[in-house]
Amino acid sequence: MTDAVNPVPENADYEDRVLIYMDVLGWSELIARSVDDESARAVLAKISSTLRFPVDGMEKSIRRGDDFYGIRVSQFSDTLVMSTLAGKRGQLTSILVLAIGTVQVVVNNGHHVRGAVVRGKLIHRPDVIYGPALVEAYKIEKDVAKYPRIIIAPAARELVQKARPDGSQIICDDRDGLQFLDVFTPHLYSAEERRATRHDLREQIRKKSSDLGIVAKHSWTLSYLDEIERRTLEVVMPWLNEDRKGRKRKS
Known about the structure:
By secondary structure, the protein is an alpha+beta fold. The chain has seven helices and eight strands.
């Protein structure tokens, strides 16, 4: 029998796990709008399906007896939590990619995600989750993150760095000294997608200029996208300069 139907033993030891905690911002407002606004209901359905996707994958895997490679996923309303054993590099890569993809879908539907990546003691079963790691992640999301970013706690940093997908840099340093998950990394989010996101964010700022909370979230994300463009140019410009020099020599 799988742990989907077995209760957690009373003497069960905590496991050393890496946990990704994500919370969709503006959810209550979206719920309120959805009562009379068909477009809000469509967005609500899209985001809910996105949050549910990894849970469905886990449940199907466990029913087949595959155990979803030890990855565990929990979702309630606008909160998604994923975890894996700290020593499982491949599984950590998988949940990082899932987290990044989830944030991108949510942002493309006009909302933001805030959260945390932590390493610590945790019990996580398909239908049960508790432990110090969950408490830490919740507190970071609520009290520390402030902006729409997924903060990487110091204890998780080295493991996240080693698990980076395709060798990409997925840890960003923010101006306040905190580090966060690079959900718009060029390796996983194209220049065209970034341009579309920037346009949508500017439109939202224009339409909701009186809501300072929303303006602050959108403005922070625009600054983050600006930093990505700056980093991208630092990589591309030397290559372009060398290419121009090569063409001049040939001519």
